[in-house]
Amino acid sequence: MPDALPDLFAPYDEHTQPQVPIQHYAGTYTRNPRRPPFRRPVTRTELTGPLDLSAKLHPGDINLAETNGKPAQGQLIYVTGRILDEDSRPVAGALVEMWQANAAGRYFNPLDQRDAPLDPNFIGNGRCQTDATGRYGFFTIKPGAYPVPNSNKWWRPPHIHFSILGPSSLSRLVTQMYFPGDPLNAVDLLLLSIADREAQQRLISSHIPTQQIEGEWLGFQHNMVVRGRHATPPL
Amino acid sequence: MSALPNSPLVPAGWQTIGPFFPRTFFNEGDNDLTRIAPTAPPTALGETIILHGHVLQEGGGPCVNAVLEAWQADALGHFRHPLDPGHAKADPAFMGWGRAWTDAEGHFEFRTIIPGSFADTSGPRAPHINLGILGSGIMRRLCTTVFFPQHAAANTADPVLAVLPAELRPLLLAQPDGERDGLRVFRFPVLLRGEPHEETPFFLD
Ligand SMILES: [Fe+3]
Questions:
Q1: How many other β-carbons are positioned within 10 Å of the β-carbon of residue A229?
Q2: Alpha carbons B60 and A26: distance in angstroms, whole number
Q3: Mean pLDDT of B40-64
Q4: Within an 8 Å CB–CB cutoff, is residue B122 touching chain A?
Q5: Residue B10: closest CA among chain A residues belongs to which residue?
Q6: Mind listing the domains of chain B with CATH numbers?
Q7: Which residues, 6+ apart, have CB-to-CB distance to A113 below 8 Å?
Q8: How remote is the C-alpha of B4 from its chain's centroid?
Q9: Which of A37, A74, A147, B179 has the fewest beta carbons under 10 Å from its own?
């Protein structure tokens, strides 16, 4: 068995995970079960997962900052980081999907009916596969904040949605990345749904010093840890 | 992010996919587990079936734009993954993974094969399909498992189904739902939140 595959999955620490319901978010009241989940043995089905997913989910959309050669509006940014497991081992070959609002805080999605401008040169969806060191990277623009409808002026801070498909079905992760220093972070109801303050802070990316980035991109570093360890502890 | 040796990192917090998971992420054939790529020929192993159903929320209304991800063994009960001791015997024409999304009625559909059973260290696993459900307002993936009524003896011995109180086990059985194009159809209704006797049982992720 390759060393890099996790084979031990402990339950999540509840304090590091969001609790529901969340005020002003109706779906959190109607779509989460009343009954607590049943604890099951971890069998082969949960331990394994698709290793050849790129045949179905095609990677390659890593430059979102232009469409058909035309630049998107907004601050150019480069978002990069590593996908790691709980033993700090890189997760190579993971598929990383991301989607985000445009600079005006509107999604290129027919379901987003807010009266903010669409940018024809910004779709805002990307997908890539991590390299041998677990690294991913996207060239994009900084998303705008947007208000949540019927929420007493709850504005989502600028954020990027991430979906990660790793080497086990139990290392699946869907999360959001936030930007350092934004005053809306401290009052965002989705971030605050995580009780543990350090766990909240881990969803906030960090600046990369401008000297370290080639070209005119502002760099943000964001590592994401997916669940999974190796049963034999590393020496 | 730096950690001392042997000092485990903490997994990231889950967040909802929100209302705007891109439709363009879905490709033709993503919900067809019988093909490893849209242009690949279907696997020759196993009985092809259609598995479909509605995802409903509290009150019985549809959960629109839910994302369902399926993972299952091949027709002989193998996974093409190094953690399966039998992985060398796994069907190379079967990936075992598919993704579907619900429409305005909350309806989803997969085309797949009846998975094989296998012996696990926890006990003999009956034929089953693991489903992960994501959606706006679902803050953490909801995990459930589809079993098949024609494998009653295997279901009785399954170590995961056994975790549930007996009266809830029928909720995880797909229901025979006729035929289409010569394929057997199975229906698996999902109720995300409801009365105890009808809410779909979920497993700790
Ligand atoms: Fe969002």
A1: 19
A2: 15
A3: 97
A4: yes
A5: A86
A6: 23-191 (2.60.130.10)
A7: none
A8: 37
A9: B179
Q: How far is the CA of B163 from the centre of ligand 1 (A)?
A: 36
- How far is it, in rounded angstroms, from Cα A80 to Cα A221? 5
Annotated catalytic sites of A, by residue? 107, 146, 156, 159, 161
Structural tokens at position B26: 């879905």
Rounded to the nearest angstrom, the minimum Cα separation between A77 and chain B is: 21
Cβ neighbours, 10 Å, residue A113: 8
Query: Which one of A23, A48, A140, A176 would you mutate to disrupt binding with B, by most B Cβ within 10 Å of its Cβ?
Result: A48
Q: What is the ipTM of this complex?
A: 0.96
Contact predicate B139/A22, CB 8 Å: yes
**CA distance linking residue B63 with residue B57, whole number of Å:** 6
CA torsion sign for A164, A126, A54, B118 is positive
Give me the pLDDT at residue B27, please. 92
The C-alpha atoms of residue B83 and residue A64 are separated, in whole angstroms, by: 36
Which residues in chain B are contacts of A87 at CB distance < 8 A? 8-9
B119 has a chain A CB within 8 A of its CB: no
Domain positions in chain A: 8-32+51-225
**Res A107 pLDDT > 70:** yes
Question: Fold for domain A8-32+51-225?
Answer: Protocatechuate 3,4-Dioxygenase, subunit A (2.60.130)
Pairwise CA distance, residues B140 & B193, whole Å: 14
Helix ranges (H only) for A4-145 are 27-30, 44-47
Residue A54 contacts B where some CB pair is shorter than 8 Å = no
pLDDT at site A4: 77
Question: Which residue's entry shows tokens 């991913």?
Answer: A136
- CB of B198 within 8 Å of a chain A CB? The answer is no
Q: Choose among A26, A48, A58: nearest Cβ to B84.
A: A48
**pLDDT tens digits along B124-155:** 999 999 999 999 999 999 999 999 999 999 99
Say if strands B190-191 and B48-56 run parallel, antiparallel, or are unpaired.
parallel
Containing A201, the helix (H) or strand (E) segment is helix A197-201
